[in-house]
Backbone:
């Protein structure tokens, strides 16, 4: 691939988007961007232990057809410096600071799982900053079962080690034929990028993020009625990590929210149904 074609690919294909960095205070944050510049950028916030290479390239590329996409590594995760925060509050403040340093006064946010916690907190902390929210596989502060994410996850992580499979096979997808096929396809997509990959999370960062998730699950409920912007809430019908009931709870409490539940799908419902999710998300953002 020539330099010119690589440059073109990097603006249209997540697989070739370079790792970029922005420094806020004394912390260097890693990010990637692609898609057309101008308009309101869409900031992507990822799950527990996830780095830039854990964003589904089919979803990122699909959204980047119409939107300037910015995918972030949290502090202390992947190529970002510093120590991973112990609270969602700190993560939200980091993202607000990074967005400001990048020069944006208005953004859309899409958060998956932990990223959905962070996105809600940003919308409450900086309401003028956020135009629209997409919350996937996530739930509210104090939501049902969120404090048990670790207890649910550890046995399935061990199962992944014993069966020589990525634990996301069991954590993100159902055990049906459809779920197993979707898991394989998703994990194959995450391997498509072969050069300039991000660093995996350290065990310390992984555990610190888990502490933040437990804290979120145990804290008092937030006043979600203050989030009056349009919100799209999406999940699978069998999410064992952040139980699907939390998605329904979000829609009941958010004044301007729409719910999509995918059948025979788990925590990673948007990955299993990426071909349906991308046009739905694009229509929501364009409305």
Residues:
């Amino acid at each position: 691939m020539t330099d010119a074609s690589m440059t073109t690919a990097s603006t249209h294909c997540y697989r070739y988007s370079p790792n970029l960095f922005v420094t806020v205070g004394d912390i260097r944050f890693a990010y990637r961007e692609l898609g057309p510049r101008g308009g309101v950028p869409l900031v992507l916030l990822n799950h527990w232990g996830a780095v830039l290479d854990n964003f589904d390239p089919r979803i990122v590329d699909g959204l980047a057809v119409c939107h300037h996409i910015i995918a972030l590594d949290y502090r202390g995760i992947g190529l970002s410096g510093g120590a991973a925060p112990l609270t969602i509050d700190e993560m939200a403040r980091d993202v607000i600071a990074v967005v400001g340093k990048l020069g944006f006064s208005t953004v859309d946010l899409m958060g998956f799982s932990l990223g959905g916690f962070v996105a809600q907190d940003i919308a409450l902390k900086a309401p003028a900053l956020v135009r629209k929210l997409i919350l996937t596989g996530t739930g509210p502060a104090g939501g049902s079962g969120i404090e048990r994410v670790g207890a649910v996850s550890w046995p399935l992580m061990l199962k992944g080690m014993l069966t020589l499979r990525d634990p996301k096979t069991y954590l993100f997808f159902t055990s049906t034929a459809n779920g197993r096929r979707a898991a394989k396809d998703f994990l194959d997509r995450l391997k498509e990028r072969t050069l300039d990959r991000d660093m995996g999370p350290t065990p310390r960062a992984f555990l610190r993020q888990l502490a933040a998730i437990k804290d979120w699950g145990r804290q008092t409920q937030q006043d979600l009625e203050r989030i009056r912007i349009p919100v799209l809430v999406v999940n699978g019908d069998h999410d064992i990590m952040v139980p699907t009931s939390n998605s329904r709870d979000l829609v009941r409490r958010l004044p301007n929210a729409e719910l999509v539940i995918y059948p025979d799908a788990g925590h990673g419902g948007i990955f299993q149904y990426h071909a349906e999710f991308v046009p739905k998300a694009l229509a929501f953002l364009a409305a």
In short: The mean pLDDT is 95.
